[in-house]
Design goal:
38% strand; alpha+beta
Length: 93
């Protein structure tokens, strides 16, 4: 079973940000992998300043840069949807 994905405004803003257009396909691919197996790919949020719920980290690379993304999400009550709260980028190269 694959979960549906729903996005908060902050997450949508990152997906629309031109700075990440070169890695958008990579980001979307990892989000689909998360939807397919959220239990196996995520861990509880590890920061008191992060949204409550789960987190999922991955890397995407373009010719210009390499990024680590941290996705914060929680399971909706319908048990069929992952609510993506935020996607935090960190440039690693």
């Amino acid at each position: 079973m694959s979960y549906e994905l729903a996005y908060e405004r902050r997450a949508l803003e990152l997906l629309a940000d031109d700075r990440f257009s070169d890695v958008l396909d990579c980001i979307e691919g990892f989000l689909l992998r998360l939807a397919a197996d959220p239990v196996g790919r995520s861990a509880p949020s590890d920061s008191s300043t992060a949204p409550t719920g789960q987190m999922f980290r991955f890397h995407c690379e373009s010719q210009e840069a390499k990024f680590q993304f941290t996705v914060y999400f929680f399971y909706r009550q319908d048990e069929q949807t992952l609510q993506i709260e935020d996607i935090i980028p960190a440039r690693t190269r």
